[in-house]
Give the backbone structure.
Amino acid sequence: MGLNLRPILTVKNIEISYLSGKWVTIDTNNMLYQFLALIRSPDGKSLTDKKGRTTSHLIGLLYRTTKLITEFDIYPVFVFDGPPPRFKSKELDKRRRERQKLRSEWEQAIARHDFRTAWSKAVRMDSLTKEMIVDAKKLLSLLGLPQVQAPSEGEAQAAYMVKKGDANFCVSQDYDALLFGAPFVVRNLTFTGIRYLPSKGTAYKITPELIVLEDVLAKLKITHNQLIQVALLMGTDYNEGIPGIGPKKALKLIRRFGNIENLPKPIKNALGNYQEIFDFFKNPPVTKKYTLTI
């Protein structure tokens, strides 16, 4: 689904050097998906080894990691997803159906030699398999880099480690890290300064962004609990939200009524049992057993 809080957030553009000498927790599954999507041959096929096993994610992981450490003196901690919460099943089913549809459209585009369309479909059609995760963990082990297996959502674990002060920044493209309470979130961690949109055949310039949760809440004049409720009104990976309510309207409602319980009944009732999801954002399963050394 993808939660877009950007219209109401306070962000600060930074240079990658801002992170030098710092520990960063990385939502590894999210990063591997990016590599799996973009590192492909012209017809959209993933790169593979001699046995036909996908290697796109490993190539990206090796390049990104060595560059972070050797050129920018950034210390990464790779956090892997565990089992998702049961209320995420609907979203995961939706994603599976979408990938199946995209694969069918990719095959059709290949058959008619429309490689541009084929590429645009391919970048979104593949899923991260258990074997790919195992291979990524093996690579990180060989590199001697710390990795943490989250008991549930990787972003929740990554946010916890920054909240605890064991790491300095949480690196993720998703805004969910803020809902899990990450005090410092870095987006757009790229070396080229360009983000490609293969599905649209375009690219645009980007710079790394720092989001400070305390500054966001101060500017919006809301609490962290209220920020989570803004997200619930919009819709998250765990709930559908209310049709027609985006970030600005959700913020306006929460500011006016204080919390979801005080909202007009039609809106409140449409959310259903939101409390379990709210509680998950506030107190997600995390592990306290990890060691950060390079």
